Amino acid sequence: MNRSDYSNSMEDQVFQLPSYMKQISDTVWEACRRVVTPEMKGLYAKHIMITGCGDSYCAGIAMKPALDAMLTPETSVEPVRAVQLSRQMSAFRLTPENPGDVLVVSISASGKPSRVVEGAMRASKCGAVTLALTSSEETPLAKECELVLEVPKPETAPVSPGILSYSVSCLGLCYFGIALGLARGNFSEEKALFYKKSVEEYCQSYEALLPQMADEMFELAKTFEKFEYYDFVGDCADFANAYFGSCKFAEAFGAYCSYDDSENWEHVNYFIEPTAKIGTVASISSDSPSLTRQKEMIPVCKRIQRKLLVLTDLDKSTFPEEVTVAQVPSCRLGFIKPIMMHLPLSLLAAYIAALKGEPYFRGGKGVWAEPNDIANSKIEIK
Questions:
Q1: Residue 374's pLDDT is what?
Q2: How far does CA 161 lie from the centroid of its chain?
Q3: In which region does residue 24 sit, left (phi positive, over 0), alpha (psi from -120 to 50) or beta (all else)?
Q4: What SS3 class is residue 31?
Q5: Which DSSP symbol is given to 374?
Q6: Domains, the chain, ranges and CATH?
Q7: Residue 326's closest CA among 237, 225, 214, 234?
């Protein structure tokens, strides 16, 4: 059983990613510099909300630490679910005390999901500055926003879970944060270019490691495909890796997944049975604020007989021999890790789907035969 016999479009996206990120880096950076100028509305926003659906919402979670690092302590950065922003959030939270105090960044490559468009419309109505991170100035989302940050839309297989697009959204947010910090005068042009170069070097560091990483994930897939349930755990930016991994498992082969932070896992998911049928994945970064708490779950998993995979930039020797470790490159800027750190989980999902012979998104068969157009439902603004 060779990995080459189970090649698939998700795997292709993973292998394309380092070179694709190199290809678009300058394009995304220049787009950010065009939008973020000293005259930009919302430049000094005190409250920045990042919204989107699915992977786009996850990108906001992933890049929150990066934006926090670029901005002053007086600025709050908050990832917000699209439906929360569009229908549930109190209007006063979107209404600025002073012009430009509230900035809403809405992410969608297609710019079509109704709740994202609706959220931008509602935010504008309340007086917030709105920015669309999307693939074109002509998308429905872009047309409802004051500002448009145009990023490339990767060309991928028509029916394949998104890997490239997620990392592009993360890159766009990261560079937006750098450009915002630079325009605010928080650091020099030299420091901004240092940040950009660090991102580029980190993305490139995966290229040489991918063949071995793919081999390891293919071997692990032979064990993980036998599980009936999958439990993902992560804190802070690691939570984005956990969330994204669960999404790819569900999209790739219809897996039953849960995702949580380490603290709640110890209080709740710890009790889930049957333990022998649960594959558990913990994303643990070396610079995580919750590192000690995250490590505490490792002996617990052993005690309750959970098969554990740890996604980490720590050395494998840090963990007991019985723990399977997917090691990713370290980097000098910890807050940029989520841009690429999900790749082992994306490969694992791809190979499990291939081994099971399961078509992505259930193949549009059975109860999934009718097209799902829920994302493009009626827009309501009150």
A1: 66
A2: 13
A3: alpha
A4: helix
A5: G
A6: 3-205 (3.40.50.10490), 207-360 (3.40.50.10490)
A7: 214
338 close to 171: Cβ distance less than 8 angstroms = no
Q: Are 332 and 198 in contact (CB under 8 A)?
A: yes
Per-residue pLDDT tens over the stretch 80-106: 999 999 999 999 999 999 999 999 999
User: Which of 209-218, 261-270, 358-367 comes out lowest in average pLDDT?
Assistant: 358-367
Contact present, 55 and 162 (Cβ < 8 Å): yes
For residue 26, pLDDT over 80 is answered with: yes
Cα separation, 91 vs 89, in Å, equals 6
Residue 197 region by backbone torsions, left for phi larger than 0, else alpha for psi between -120 and 50, else beta: alpha
Alpha helices, DSSP H only, in 225-342? 237-253, 262-267, 291-303
pLDDT tens sequence across 325-350: 999 999 989 999 999 999 999 999 99
Query: 344 preceded by cis ω (within 30°)?
Result: no
Q: Is 172 left (phi over 0), alpha (psi -120 to 50) or beta?
A: alpha
Q: At what angle do helices 9-35 and 164-183 cross, to 10 degrees?
A: 20
**Would you say residue 371 has pLDDT above 90?**
no
Distance CA(74)–CA(335), nearest Å, equals 19
Q: What is the mean pLDDT of residues 118-124?
A: 97
The count of other CB atoms within 10 Å of the CB of residue 323 is 18
Cα distances (angstroms) measured from residue 189 to each of 183, 202, 382? 9, 20, 43
Per-residue pLDDT tens over the stretch 137-148: 999 999 999 999
DSSP state of 112: -
pLDDT tens, position by position, 257-283: 999 999 999 999 999 999 999 999 999
Cβ 156 vs Cβ 9: under 8 Å = yes
Q: Which two tokens stand for residue 87?
A: 């229908």
Is pLDDT above 90 for 380?
A: no
- The DSSP code sequence of 192-257 is HHHHHHHHHHHHHTTGGGHHHHHHHHHHHHHHHTT-SEEEEEE-THHHHHHHHHHHHHHHHH--EE
